[in-house]
Amino acid sequence: MIAGVSPDLPHTHHLPAGKEWGLRLLRAPVGLGLRSWWRVRVHGREHLPRSGPVILAANHLGFLDGPALVAFTPRRTFTVAKTELFHGLLGRLLTYVGQIPVDRHEPDTRAIRRAVQVLRAGEVLALFPEGRRTGGEVNHARGGAAYLALVTGAPVVPVALLGTREPGHTDAQLPRRGAPVHIVYGPPLQLPQTPWPRRRTVVAEWTERVRQHLAEHVVAAQSLTGLPLPGPPKAKSHLTRG
């Protein structure tokens, strides 16, 4: 069967100027704030290409993951985030800096087109193949990273996030002040750029390759930093006031 939303994907190499400048202005203060609160360490910057489109595929532990990637990746970075975050003040801020909302429960052609536009403009796009916050082992993956790499030819750089959630915390809790946070970039995985139509079997095969590449990198990053994964997130309490 054929995979893909449509052969009519965006071909523009330009992004709205406001989105670019909004993201550029936000990175420095966010990075400063994170470094003032946690002991942030970045490893493997040399694995990130200095120019051209790049897909960052990261494990997903907690709320801090997205801001950390945007603030500390050496290049300007756009992220794909669940639509539930795009409400209120946070939603307006995410929209202002050009971040991409995605519906996790059904195919989202608008998000795919926006992601392709970012990559064809030669930018960096970060996403979480697991699709939700987990223990971070990357035991499963959705097909977004592989699909976008096949469409655009962008290399997939694995990123291990460690310390962004502590053991026993819910996925919305932040680490204690002064805790170590490690961002570890790994060697890129190059997928063959594949013209439309793209077979679902091909996308599935490369999705598994991306998952394995990221999972192996997460294991290596734990050895490098000495910081283990925190385990599954604690379930949120639904107790009501009596």
TrEMBL record:
<feature type="domain" description="Phospholipid/glycerol acyltransferase">
    <location>
        <begin position="54"/>
        <end position="164"/>
    </location>
</feature>
<keyword id="KW-0808">Transferase</keyword>
<protein>
    <submittedName>
        <fullName>Acyl-CoA:1-acyl-sn-glycerol-3-phosphate acyltransferase</fullName>
        <ecNumber>2.3.1.51</ecNumber>
    </submittedName>
</protein>
<keyword id="KW-0012">Acyltransferase</keyword>
<dbReference type="GO" id="GO:0005886">
    <property type="term" value="C:plasma membrane"/>
</dbReference>
<dbReference type="Pfam" id="PF01553">
    <property type="entry name" value="Acyltransferase"/>
</dbReference>
<dbReference type="GO" id="GO:0003841">
    <property type="term" value="F:1-acylglycerol-3-phosphate O-acyltransferase activity"/>
</dbReference>
<dbReference type="InterPro" id="IPR002123">
    <property type="entry name" value="Plipid/glycerol_acylTrfase"/>
</dbReference>
<dbReference type="GO" id="GO:0006654">
    <property type="term" value="P:phosphatidic acid biosynthetic process"/>
</dbReference>
